[in-house]
Amino acid sequence: MEILKPNREQLLLVGASLFLLGFFWVGSPVKIMGQDESPKPKPGGVLRIKPFDQSLNTDLDPAGNSSPLVTEHLYEGLVRFDQNLGIVPGLAEYWSISKDGKKMTFYLRKEARFHNGQEVTAEDVKFSLERLFQTKKKPAFYLFASRIEGGEEFWEGISDEVTGIKVIDKRVLEINWNQGSISNIYFLTASFAKILPKNLVLKQKRFFDKPIGAGPFKFDYWLRNSRLDIIGIRLVRNEDYFTRKPFLEAVEISPYFTLDDFFQNEVEIIPYLSYRISRDKYPLLESNLLRMTYLFFSCHLPPFDRPEVRRAIQSFLEKRPLAGLSSTTARFCQVTNSFIPAFFPGFLSDSREEPDSLSQALRALESVGLGRADHPLQVNLIIDFSKGSSVQEMYEYLRDGLRPTGIRLELKAGLTPEELRRETTPYLYYLDWQLELPDPEFLIYPLFHSEAHPNRSFFHYRNQEVDNLLEIQKDSVSFRRRIQIFKQIEKLLKEDVPAIPLYFYKQRLAYQPNLRNLKAQSLGLMYLNLRDVWVDR
Fold it and tell me: For residue 208, is it within any domain?
């Protein structure tokens, strides 16, 4: 086993032969307009941000539904992503990885401390990761647990610890994985994998009312209005942060900040809510989101159990108007033809192959009795009604667009898996899918593996070759080989068309021109890195 120690120029933390050269993001964050960075940052100042959320999120538990804009600065993990999704040190100063990728040994920084001055130890790391598996709040937590030796036994309550997470000494932790997948380390970069002080979490029942982390900013207090209602949160600079402390004195985040506040220079960052925000005056940042939208077929119900029918129906669907119905100025949709978005590493080319002609598609439909206006087939459209007023417009667009196929589309509220199992009417399922982690496995496996819960519950797509390839990639320690496997899967999905890829989401925000060193992030704009930002006043 080779241990790679950092030098002063750059920390290249890759394990012996483990592929981390593949952890980069292609074509992701885009800076629309900006300015030269000043070589002389000015410490101080309060940065005020209006987040994309319309309501206040007071959950500060990284294992809950907390906002990454807060948790990424309040807490720290073993490792984290840089701007381009390179793996960089967090609390771990460096680490080593065995040649088969199954053993990772992390060496904690001597200077890493929580906000109360308490030293961060390997025991805190083990506790924090095992705590995720005890909460069982998200499907990703089970996937994480199942990857580690003894993780499933701990999840099921058979064991009182995860045997694959080992405290070697105070500053050394070892994680043993069941398989040597490249994607294993992604779990450790996630917002939910932040490290908490074990003794305080166990001792204080209301720990997350005023939490203590090890991040670059500390919880200060809740912002309140004149009625003492909580309207936001204030974080202050961690003067003892283990690397260079932030330039900003404090950060205040509130969804109740207004556009007028921004125009009056009382708020520095705001979603691009209106075209009233002049692009000539205010710089913009734009970033892809880890969120894809598909229109799934009920692959187990005739006639959608036939790939040629699904391919034919795809030919009648124009995606751009549908994307427009789901878009706003601050969050908009980019049409895609691929199951795996083009901005994922190794998937830069978004293929634009010509669909079947409408005459070919109609012939395929006629072969199964479709395409007849005098005898239409009823098909239900299942869609999340929380999308609000756009639901009816989306339904009407799809209804009219699919009418030439001989389909009479009926709008249905979201049905439970139990109700869908009893359903005999074929249906289309409109799905927005938010990825937990930036890797194609976390998109393709849950939606297209025959035994994955979402697929098994709603879409019922089965392809043994896809299943086999998804299992094979879990043991691949070659980045290039793994990309080839997912490209094979992409090809199979395009042949089978279990769903129609529609679009992925992008975010756009505006900021004051005197704000320096603000950069787009590959995970989305609510993962902004505020450590390096400063205000030029």
Answer: no
Q: How far apart are CA 298 and CA 301, in angstroms?
A: 6
H-assigned helices in 79-233: 122-135, 139-147, 151-155, 184-189, 198-203
User: Which residues are within 8 A (CB) of 203 and not within 5 positions of it... i.e. 6 or more apart?
Assistant: none
Contact call for residues 484 and 440 (beta carbons, < 8 A): no
* Backbone φ, ψ for residue 381 (5° rounding): -105, 115
Same structural domain, 228 and 327: no
420 with 314, same domain: the answer is: yes
Which structural domain range is residue 230 located in?
39-62+215-282+512-537
* Residue type at 334 in one-letter notation: Q
Take residue 143 and report the two structure tokens written for it.
């996937």
* DSSP annotation string for 360-400: HHHHHHHTTT-S-TTSPEEEEEE--GGGTTHHHHHHHHHHH
Q: Crossing angle for the helix pair 441-448 and 479-496, nearest 10 degrees?
A: 40
Provide the CATH number for the domain around residue 235.
3.40.190.10
Helix H or strand E segment including 305 = none
- Give domain status of residue 95, yes or no: yes
Do 138 and 241 belong together in one domain? Answer: no
Q: Which of 16, 15, 4, 44 is nearest to 533 (CA)?
A: 44
409 occurs within a structural domain = yes
CA distance 311 to 500: 9
Task: Tell me, yes or no, whether 264 and 158 share the same domain.
Answer: no
**Same domain, yes or no: 235 and 338:** no
Q: How far apart, in whole angstroms, are the C-alpha atoms of residue 180 and residue 166? A: 17
Q: For the domain that residue 414 is a member of, what is the CATH number? A: 3.10.105.10
The pLDDT of residue 253 is 97
Look at residue 348 in the predicted model and tell me its pLDDT: 66
Residues 6+ apart with CB under 8 A from 352: 337
- Residue 386 is predicted with a pLDDT of 64
Sites in the chain below the pLDDT cut of 50: 1-37
- Number of domains within the chain: 3
| Residue 192 resides in a domain | yes
Look at residue 2 in the predicted model and tell me its pLDDT. Answer: 37
User: What's this model's pTM, rounded to 2 decimal places?
Assistant: 0.86
- The pLDDT of residue 167 is 98
Same domain, 429 and 301: yes
For residue 219, the cross-strand partners are: 235
pLDDT value of position 20: 44
pLDDT of the residue at 55: 86
pLDDT tens per residue across span 415-467: 777 888 888 999 999 999 998 888 899 999 999 999 998 999 999 999 999 99
Same domain, yes or no, for 179 and 291?
A: no
Q: Which two tokens stand for residue 259?
A: 């556009």
Q: What is the per-residue pLDDT for 352?
A: 57
**So what's the pLDDT on residue 136?**
84
- Tell me how far apart the alpha carbons of residues 441 and 346 are, in angstroms, rounded to a whole number: 13
Residue 526: the pLDDT is: 83
